[in-house]
Write a structure and sequence with these properties.
The protein is globular. It is α/β, with parallel strands linked by helices and 372 residues long. The chain has 2 domains: 111 residues, Aspartate Aminotransferase, domain 1; 202 residues, 3-Layer(aba) Sandwich (Aspartate Aminotransferase, domain 2), CATH 3.40.640. It has 14 helices and 12 strands. The strands form 3 sheets. A 7-stranded mixed sheet has the order 2-8-7-6-5-3-4, with helices on both faces.
Length: 372
């Protein structure tokens, strides 16, 4: 225990000690991933529950793996909805983290090279390491370096898997999907693995994500989306071909050995996902207020990598980030400091996560609180 206590003291000295807390009463919650503002919608909840007014609600627990007795009509209906939307088979998972630490180890081995963007999420890093496959990290969004790595190694491996996010969770910028597809098409053994966690519901005319927005859905070999953000639910899914889906059912350990999502959650996710095409106005509003905040931060002379509703306010030091977050929280804006190792050293920041239920006046008020 002395070792663990010593490590905790070191983290505290570096302003990196994390604690669990509940969100206090505040005027504006800028740390939620509830991107479309749906999670507390009484109207939406009532509409969903009314669907079951003449029958039992779906079960609140699945009680086993889908390969045992945990599968249900609601899991299959959700996968059917996803397949109809994307035009390819879908497979459900318990979370985005669950998907990423399971898919990569299932499909990659010593004959596979993984090339991952330097800033991909921790779950993708963990999945890459768990796979045991050789891997390299290319500089963030640097397609020149990626092209060189592909040219050097394509002939050495059965497959090369290019792993990236569509919208990066800390910088809020976009992956250059069109260029990634162009590079892929120069070879016959390249797979693109795209995590759309922060884009599903927020981009695309049907809310399918950045790949839909950039008109390259058919070129993404494995697309991972989540329900835990814009869909105000829990769980995740992969879009892939039928061969890969069947292969994952037979080889992906987190899927095989985990209790499935509760049917009630699958039913709610299905209900919300089917409404994504109807919420283009929410997406346009979110883009508008996000542009306004990004512009205000840029005018203060701070770096602004974001192109989305994830807007970083990069101050550099952990202490500065903690102090500014505390000041804003005292004034009614709930925002949290993001520190290494979540972000690179000396890039501590506040991460403003805007949602479609915020009003433009809320953003004006937030901007007035930021240091000039």
């Amino acid at each position: 225990m002395q070792y663990f206590q010593s490590r905790l003291e070191q983290l505290a000295a570096q302003n990196q000690l994390r604690r669990l807390s509940r969100i206090p009463e505040c005027r504006l919650n800028c740390s939620s991933n509830d991107y479309l503002g749906l999670s507390r919608s009484a109207e939406l909840q009532t509409e969903f529950l009314n669907r079951f007014s003449d029958r039992h609600l779906p079960a609140f627990g699945s009680t086993s793996s889908r390969l045992l007795t945990g599968n249900s009509e609601y899991h299959e209906a959700l996968e059917a909805t996803l397949q109809q939307a994307y035009g390819r088979p879908a497979l459900l998972f318990n979370s985005g983290y669950h998907a990423n630490i399971g898919i990569l180890p299932a499909i990659a081995d010593k004959h596979t090279l993984i090339l991952a963007d330097k800033l991909v999420h921790a779950s993708l890093i963990d999945g890459t390491r768990l796979s045991g496959a050789p891997y390299k990290r290319f500089r963030h969004n640097d397609t020149v370096q990626l092209a060189r790595l592909l040219n050097e190694h394509a002939a050495e491996y059965r497959h090369i898997i290019v792993v990236t996010e569509s919208i990066f969770s800390m910088d809020g910028d976009f992956a250059p999907l069109a260029e990634l597809v162009r590079l892929k098409n120069q070879y016959n053994n390249i797979l693109i693995y795209l995590d759309e966690a922060h884009a599903v519901g927020v981009y695309g005319t049907s809310g399918l994500g950045l790949a839909e927005h950039d008109a390259c859905l058919k070129s993404i070999d494995i697309l991972v989306g989540t329900f835990g953000k814009a869909a105000a639910s829990i769980g995740a899914y992969a879009i892939c071909n039928n061969t890969l889906k069947t292969y994952l059912i037979n080889t992906m350990r987190p899927l095989i050995f985990s209790t499935a999502l509760p049917p009630i959650n699958a039913a709610w996710s299905d209900f919300v996902f089917q409404k994504f095409p109807l919420w283009q106005a929410k997406r346009l509003h979110l883009n508008h207020i996000s542009t306004k905040l990004r512009t205000a931060v840029r005018q203060r002379g701070l770096p602004m990598p974001s192109q989305s509703n994830v807007v970083p306010y990069i101050v550099g030091s952990n202490r500065k980030a903690e102090q500014l977050a505390a000041q804003l929280q005292q004034q009614g804006c709930y925002v949290l400091p993001i520190r290494p190792p979540t972000v690179p050293p000396n890039t501590a920041r506040l991460r403003f996560s805007l949602t479609a239920d915020m009003q433009e006046s809320d953003i004006d008020w937030l901007i007035s609180l930021l240091p000039a």
